Amino acid sequence: MTQSLPSRPNTKRLHIITWGCQMNAYDSARMADVLAPIGYAPTDDVGAADMVILNTCHIRDRAAEKVFSELGRLRVVKEERAAAGRRTILAVAGCVAQAEGEALLARAPFVDIVLGPQTYHRLPEMVARASRAAGVVVDTDFPAEEKFDFLPVPVASGLSAFLTIQEGCDKFCSYCVVPYTRGAEHSRPEAAVLAEARALVAAGAREIVLLGQNVNAWHGLDETGSPSSLGRLIRRLADLPDLWRLRYTTSHPRDMDDSLIVAHAEVAKLMPFLHLPVQSGSDRILAAMNRKHTAADYLRLVERLRRAQPDLALSSDFIVGHPGETRADFAATLALIREVGFAQAYSFKYSPRPGTPAATAQSQISEEEKDARLQELQELLRAQQDAFNRACVGRRARVLFTGPGRHPGQIAGRAPWLQPVHTTGPAALVGREVEVAISAAHPNSLSVDLLSPEQPPEECPPEQASEQEHACA
Ligand code: SAH
Ligand code: SF4
Ligand code: F3S
């Protein structure tokens, strides 16, 4: 069920600054959606904004610190506007708001609204309260009602759209704040996901990226009231005729079930890319992290995935310097990376997060050692990414062009393996899926030549999909 609110003319301006994961990007878009009916239209100009929302991330220390430095800047903007007789409502949303709650106000008393990731459907009410009274509104509940039931149906969409299907986490990895900031794991029902996907496609989306902190743990109820699975959901979404591409992120190795692996072999619309964080290659550290899988489990899983879809590009997250990580543990991580061969990856220095078990563990690693390990790890990952991109040169691929490129006359999109792609071409190809030949590799992108812009998007039969050689590995 979605709520439809009578619209008011857009007389006020809203500026949202977003940090963190794609789920925060999705949430920011939905906050704009819930505020539109009470008259807020987006602006890029913070000085013109009647309301500014900081949608924050708490995952690492530096992410949280950025919020406070931005708040310092916004205080000045708010004061300048006040001197000109204009009110600015300043809201802090997202995971820092959830983690810090009222404590945030001690550091930033000029903030008007503090709201967590599970209460933004109540924003219109909070704005009304903040506008009426001088006091501060704090809402960091985990409400019993389902936030998604109160969000309006999306009416606008880019060509590639995010769709949150699962939220929260029950895994409690030693280092991670997500179970505390996002709450318990929760899957949206299949019908709600399909309805939102249809609305996004009707609004112009041709690619949907399914989101969740543990997206492959999704087990939303189907029409019979039984738990479904992500593999099955992907097949149902692939039946939408005007939807051409599907992706999903982020997956946990423990939740990668057979139906999802088989979907990679059989569903042509499912892009051959998987972000599957392993964090470490050392069993000792994986146990300390409470990941509940070993390096060998991960390698076996990669083997099964590649058997199902030999063209699969793999991505991961790594943490270096978790408490207790020895040089030998770190060497095991490098060995795992060499064995898998990643198309891309994210890597971080361990950052102690208040309230998590690892933060108070003995044997914290020095910053110097973490820096050195991160540099070594990133060098290896960069070399693998370069090798992967170079191996793509000469291949053909279908690219969904989603907008103009950086230079005049260019259009841009993404390759099936997620690299940004650009070429010289007519703007009329934006919104089309086009056959291209990959002509050059750069560290973070590919240049391509257009082959057959006129061709309509075609289905690749499953036999063909699994016969493609794994040229990009
Ligand atoms: N649910 C996903 C990850 C979500 S957080 C998973 O389980 O893989 C995104 C990434 O941030 C994590 O994969 C991890 O690599 C990193 N991260 C989380 N907490 C961290 C911390 N305290 N220090 C450094 N990196 C961290
Ligand atoms: Fe954090 Fe672990 Fe949950 Fe991922 S699985 S969100 S790393 S606690
Ligand atoms: Fe950050 Fe919260 Fe996402 S901590 S990574 S915004 S779930």
Keywords summarizing the entry:
about 475 residues; binds iron/sulfur cluster; 19 strands; 14 helices; Rossmann fold; disordered N terminus; binds S-adenosyl-L-homocysteine; alpha/beta; globular; OB fold (Dihydrolipoamide Acetyltransferase, E2P)
Describe the structure in brief:
This protein has 14 helices and 19 strands.
- How many domains comprise the coordinates? 3
Instruction: Please report which band the strand proportion falls in: under 5%, 5-15%, 15-25%, 25-35%, 35-45% or over 45%.
Output: 15-25%
Low-confidence stretches: 1-6, 454-473
CATH architecture field of the largest domain? Alpha-Beta Horseshoe
Describe this structure in words.
- It is built from 14 helices and 19 strands.
- Helix 8 (230-238) packs parallel to helix 9 (258-266).
- The protein has helices spanning 22-35, 61-83, 94-100, 102-107, 123-132, 178-181, 190-202, 230-238, 258-266, 283-288, 295-308, 327-340, 367-392, 462-467; strands at residues 12-18, 40-42, 51-56, 89-93, 113-115, 137-139, 160-164, 166-167, 186-187, 207-211, 245-249, 273-275, 313-320, 344-349, 396-404, 410-414, 420-424, 433-441, 446-452.
- It has 473 residues and is of the alpha/beta class.
- It folds into three domains: 2-139, 3-Layer(aba) Sandwich (Rossmann fold); 147-387, pyruvate-formate lyase- activating enzyme; 393-469, Nucleic acid-binding proteins (OB fold (Dihydrolipoamide Acetyltransferase, E2P)).
- Bound molecules: S-adenosyl-L-homocysteine, iron/sulfur cluster and FE3-S4 cluster.
- The site of iron/sulfur cluster has 10 residues, from helix 6.
